[in-house]
Amino acid sequence: MIDLTDAGCANEKLALQMFKAMEEGTLSSALEELCSADFVWANSGLPTLSGRQAVLAHMAAGGFASTIPILADMTSFSADLIHIASAGNVVFTERIDHHWDAQGRDLMTPHIAGVIEIRDGKICALRDFYDTACYQQTPTAPDPAHAL
Question: How far is CA 31 from the centre of its chain?
Fold first, then answer.
């Protein structure tokens, strides 16, 4: 789970707030506060989303489950932050993302190197790099701690 106290500066905190909103299921309502209107979101092997409105439209159309079938049963998300570092307006994260279903199975667990760019106090780009083999991953056994 994301802990905002892991941030060493305001830009790192902003980046972690984005991942925290994903965990809390509040990303769509937090996008305007956290991201610039021209926000760009790029993920390995997927089309790049350009603009906050494009992200909202993508989410309304089923999100990443619309292109990654294993995510069709996802009910929640969590991330394990391994490292965070920043230089100026660029924040780097290493993390493991978890995509949970109602039974508490981890459907997809990419190990991610992420680059977040900040401009005028808002995230203007998020680029996540990982092995796309996770798109065909076998879900884990159920974990009662993540079951609904």
Answer: 12
User: Which amino acid belongs to residue 50?
Assistant: S
Q: Which residues contact 123 (CB under 8 A, 6 or more apart)?
A: 14, 15, 18, 34, 35, 36, 39, 116, 117
36-72 tens-digit pLDDT: 999 999 999 999 999 999 999 999 999 999 999 999 9
Cβ-Cβ contacts under 8 Å for 58 (sequence gap 6 or more): 49, 66
pLDDT beyond 90 at 148: no
Cβ-based neighbours of 44, under 8 Å, separated by 6 or more: 128, 129, 130, 131, 132
The whole model's pTM is what? Answer: 0.94
Write down the mean pLDDT value for the chain: 96
Integer distance in angstroms from the first to the last C-alpha of the chain? 17
Q: Are strands 90-101 and 111-119 parallel, antiparallel or unpaired?
A: antiparallel
Q: How many other CB atoms are there within 10 angstroms of residue 81's CB atom? A: 17
Domains of the chain: 4-131 (3.10.450.50)
Asked if residues 64 and 43 have their Cβ atoms less than 8 Å apart, the reply is yes
